[in-house]
């Protein structure tokens, strides 16, 4: 039998995909159709909403900032909404620099993105802890997203897959799939140079590496970070594996 499709082209989103199918702890496969990642869901068409319902998605986790969520709000029948707000600091910092008259380069944008990812580890850990609490509360199908489904969502997906024992190189491959799938809305050029926008609207290995290196350097690795910062102890990790990995 062929594997289910990872990328699901729901009408109104471009970066909706399944975390299933990867090989995790003990050679067991991450279960398909349980955990999904996406760009924001406010643009879903009626057909897209119907396709989401057909997948059985019962929970949506929104990592967008407060203003982002309010500007493009949504409510989906039968889907419980959880707002775990992480403010889009990289956009705010880039805009502030441009307003000050500074000239942004692609290298500047990469540095801003790396700082943002380190912030996921330092400042935003409570939101990711809440995500794991929701995963442990129920295995009802869930989708989590931010605006583009690439940074806040990308780090969340990496944490989940790593916690399930998926190797880092495979996790990085999943992360980089955004570059093949995500299509920014038209009209977002703004005042930034094109080379800067190319950085801000895509993902790079260096971004996720910045966060994972911070986890290793400051917390002694993934295991203590999960246990001491995200509240995922040995028993909780075993429960995650029981819920989201196929039986061995």
UniProtKB/TrEMBL annotation:
PROSITE patterns tied to this protein = TYR_PHOSPHATASE_1, TYR_PHOSPHATASE_2
Gene3D superfamilies under this entry? Protein tyrosine phosphatase superfamily
| UniProt xrefs under Pfam families | Y_phosphatase3
Q: Domain Tyrosine specific protein phosphatases, which positions?
A: 126-184
What InterPro entries does UniProt report for this protein, alphabetically? Prot-tyrosine_phosphatase-like (IPR029021), Tyr/Ser_Pase_IphP-type (IPR026893), Tyr_Pase_AS (IPR016130), Tyr_Pase_dom (IPR000387)
Q: What is the protein's given name?
A: Tyrosine-protein phosphatase
Give the source species: Acidovorax lacteus
